[in-house]
Design a protein that fits this description.
Helix content: over 70%
Shape: elongated
Number of helices: 3
Distance between the termini: 87 Å
Structural class: mainly alpha
Strand content: 5-15%
Number of strands: 4
Radius of gyration: 45 Å
Order of helices and strands: HEEHHEE
């Protein structure tokens, strides 16, 4: 379906160009500086020639910009590859976390070793602190349960 639309569009453009040439076949003569004159030629040839020259100039500009973009793409691809290799080297140089215990694991082990002795003391201290909190609560005009 898409190829039919393209073909139809091409046929319409060609019909436009042919009918333009038929309707503008008057002979013209161009005058340049120093009394230089061209031979007589149809007007549509001048229009077609200018359009063709414009198309080629546009193509040249497009080609140069594409060449510049390709050069930049090659440079960025090379830089990307270099960065990947340095990143891979750094990953290999790092110590694997599976081989060594992390700092968090070591601290967790120390805490678990110390907790049984502290648990007995902390339970009795918690009960004492709760009793002190109950004793220090005073009912004030601002509201009940505020500590002084």
């Amino acid at each position: 379906m898409k190829s039919y639309i393209k073909a139809l569009f091409l046929i319409i453009i060609l019909l436009f160009l042919v009918t333009f040439g038929i309707r503008n076949n008057q002979l013209i003569q161009l005058n340049y500086y120093f009394d230089f004159r061209t031979a007589d030629f149809p007007l549509y040839l001048l229009v077609y020639g200018c359009a063709t020259i414009g198309i080629f100039i546009g193509m040249l500009i497009g080609i140069t910009s594409r060449l510049h973009q390709r050069k930049k793409i090659k440079m960025l691809t090379k830089l990307n590859a270099e960065l990947k290799t340095t990143s891979d080297k750094e990953k290999k140089d790092d110590v694997k976390p599976e081989d060594q215990k992390s700092v968090v694991d070591v601290k967790a082990e120390k805490i678990s070793e110390d907790t049984p002795a502290k648990d007995k003391k902390s339970k009795s201290e918690d009960k004492d602190s709760e009793k002190e909190n109950e004793d220090t609560q005073v009912i004030s005009p601002a509201g009940p349960g505020l500590k002084v």
